[in-house]
């Protein structure tokens, strides 16, 4: 059936979005030739265009989607586009529209709206010494320019310059960490809802994505790992949750366990690279991304991280 074919191709395109946006775009183009008013294909192409920073074109596809039927996905993505363009009132308008249609988006939309309201106006810089204040301002400017690693470095230096700013600056650091956590890669997995362990795994993922409750997620994942300590998908997810809790070494231990089971498990290798970069372990992080670059299907995802670390190492060589 045509509907089954289209749904299958959309799932394929969504999976390709992680590593090969060009191929995903080609699939969406093919689908839109067959069914020009397919909302999922329109939103999918818009999302793929966002991945390659073609925001104006992406916006047109979300507008086309909304002209057919109001839907939360198009509203949410339009909000993200206007947030990126720093048109904050428009962004908040679209975020609110998305939440009206789908209240389950409330947690993620709250995070996105909080990112919009973060500015020097929300922090009383007069409370800190001059060096820390300048570093905080610089960090926020870099964050708004999407130079997240440089922003993170500025915030950490601000804390070193004046420890009294730590509480305020950690809030800004957490927002950057949330951005990186969204970059983590997880394998899509088919769940057998007649299987008790699969039901627990699905509940764990739901508690993280929809309920924004990482503590509950961790508890459920530990239950799964008591039954099967080598469950790759669960170990990888657990590493991501431990990252949220700032348990960096424990997160890496989870990713290493994945890689001891399957040395080519690219999800864990990529996630480990991000955590090592957060820990400022640049050569170790680079080694992870070097390995991933040997797999052409992941190069688009990996190259920006690889280049950032190489640039950093060239500026500040390790003695």
TrEMBL record:
Signal peptide: none annotated. The keyword Repeat applies. SUPFAM superfamilies: Protein prenylyltransferase. InterPro entries: TPR-like_helical_dom_sf, TPR_rpt, Ycf3/AcsC/BcsC/TPR_MFPF. Coiled coil: none annotated. The keyword Repeat applies. Keywords: Repeat, TPR repeat. It comes from the Archaea. TPR repeats lie at residues 72-105. This is Tetratricopeptide repeat-containing protein. The lineage of its organism: Archaea, Methanobacteriati, Methanobacteriota, Methanomada group, Methanobacteria.
């Amino acid at each position: 059936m045509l509907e089954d074919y289209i749904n299958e191709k959309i799932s394929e395109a969504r999976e390709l979005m992680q590593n090969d946006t060009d191929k995903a775009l080609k699939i969406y183009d093919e689908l839109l030739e067959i069914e020009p008013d397919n909302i999922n294909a329109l939103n999918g192409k818009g999302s793929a265009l966002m991945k390659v920073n073609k925001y104006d074109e992406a916006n047109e596809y979300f507008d086309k989607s909304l002209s057919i039927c109001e839907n939360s996905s198009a509203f949410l993505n339009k909000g993200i586009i206007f947030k990126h363009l720093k048109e904050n009132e428009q962004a908040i308008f679209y975020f609110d529209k998305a939440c009206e249609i789908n209240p389950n988006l409330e947690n993620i939309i709250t995070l996105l709206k909080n990112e919009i309201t973060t500015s020097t106006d929300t922090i009383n810089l007069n409370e800190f010494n001059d060096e820390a204040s300048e570093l905080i301002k610089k960090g926020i400017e870099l964050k708004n320019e999407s130079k997240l690693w440089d922003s993170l470095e500025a915030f950490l230096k601000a804390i070193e310059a004046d420890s009294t700013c730590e509480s305020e600056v950690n809030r800004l650091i957490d927002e950057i960490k949330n951005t990186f956590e969204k970059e983590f890669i997880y394998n899509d997995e088919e769940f057998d809802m007649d299987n008790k362990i699969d039901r627990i795994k699905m509940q764990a993922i739901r508690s993280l994505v929809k309920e924004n409750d990482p503590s509950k997620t961790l508890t459920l994942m530990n239950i799964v790992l008591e039954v099967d300590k080598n469950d790759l998908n669960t170990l990888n997810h657990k590493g991501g949750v431990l990252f949220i809790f700032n348990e960096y070494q424990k997160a890496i231990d989870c990713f290493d366990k994945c890689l001891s089971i399957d040395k080519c498990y690219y999800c864990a290798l990529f996630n480990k690279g991000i955590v090592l970069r957060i820990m400022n372990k640049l050569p170790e992080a680079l080694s992870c991304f070097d390995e991933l670059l040997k797999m052409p299907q992941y190069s688009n995802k990996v190259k920006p991280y690889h280049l950032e670390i190489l640039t950093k190492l060239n500026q500040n060589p390790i003695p």
